[in-house]
TrEMBL record:
Residue ranges with Low complexity bias: 65-80
Highest taxon in the source lineage: Bacteria
Keywords, alphabetical: Membrane, Transmembrane, Transmembrane helix
The protein's name in its UniProt record: WD40 repeat domain-containing protein
Natural source organism: Microtetraspora malaysiensis
SUPFAM superfamilies linked to this entry: Tricorn protease N-terminal domain
Amino acid sequence: MRTEHELAEALKNAANGAPVPADLERGVADRRRRRTRRRHGSLLAAAGVVAVVLGGTAVVRGGHVPPSADPVASAAAGAPDDADADADQAPRARDVWPEAVTTFPKKAADGFKYRPVTALGPTEILLTAEASFEKAGRLEVYDTRTRASRVLATMAPRGKGYYPQDFEVGSDYIAWYGTTPNNGRKWADFWVAPRQGGEPIRVGEVTGDLALVDRIGVTGDHIVWSPKSGGVYRMPIAGGEPEKVEGTDGLWLDSWPWARDVPGDSFPDEKWRNANQALLVDLENGTRRRITPPSGVTGLRCSTEWCLGTSGEKALSMRIDGTDVRELPGGPSGTLEIHGDRFAELGVGLPAIYDLATGRAGGIGATTRDGRGGGWGMGVSSSPAQVYYWNAHGVETKETCGPMPERQRKALAEAGAPSPGATMCTTETVEPGDENEILNLAAVPPAG
């Protein structure tokens, strides 16, 4: 399977006349499925182009296409009782929650690119610093009060084809795992770094189905994770063999210590995508909470307080005990997950974050001058992230047109599509400025 960098480069080369690799479309879909809960800025935006045939003209369009292929849209703001009154779009998050929205630099002083992971608290955001695309080299903490960052850990290079994945924050450690997705091998290794800073610790490695990680977590002495096949496993940070946590058959890790009866990465499988969560289990004390979905609801997902599902094309919420059932404005945008125990992504226009506890919504994402939706990203944590970010100065587009390269014309002619004199237009998405804006859900005031 190709890396996202390779896919982006292939798209860029295709715009310049190179043939599109046969596995390109399949590779894009596979990578999107794996990361749909983590990032809604498109890998196509990394290349800035995507080729589409319209009649006799090959038009290359760029921009931030949500990898879930769902519409990126917004929810209407207002009190919970007004949830059925859709608005064209929500007010901007910075106006709804001014204490929770700030900016941060796109790059560190040495040129490493910052990618948000999640919130460490109301004023601290965990970042990775990348030497190249998705090659995290450091963990840093950005303080939104002082507007300064500090290095928590420096990650040793692990060679070509190795990619750190899905970071997760615990009370004592920050954990992640790494894979080599392009060699066809089922393999992963696990790492932790002290939350207060220090040298990373390589915990161990696994192969086979245990290496197909769904979600990870970390305790004071163990890495914990669920493979895609289910069950919850753990490995001592001090060293040792993996073992299955007793009583976790048919469960997947949600966010430690909670597990549930549906996987975290359910997008690739329609069965799981539409399945309703019916159980939430505390793996520390054994508490089991049964959940009864309302009639007609699919894809129900629950935190410790709230549940979110769909009914037709509408989103619906309820308390985990089945009370306070409401139809929400618009439909879900992206996967059905609850972030920060009470927030959901909804859509009826531009993207917005909806507070299930208060009924307020804040629009996110960069926009063009005419108000159309642009790019946005979500933190790359394993459990649902608490940060969303976008370009602080909007997005701009630039279109250039010219004769279609001979190789492209020949391929399209063989397919019976355009005439030999077809032209190619390339629309590039440009994100001006050196700052991103970020919404920290941990800084949103408590409900009530």
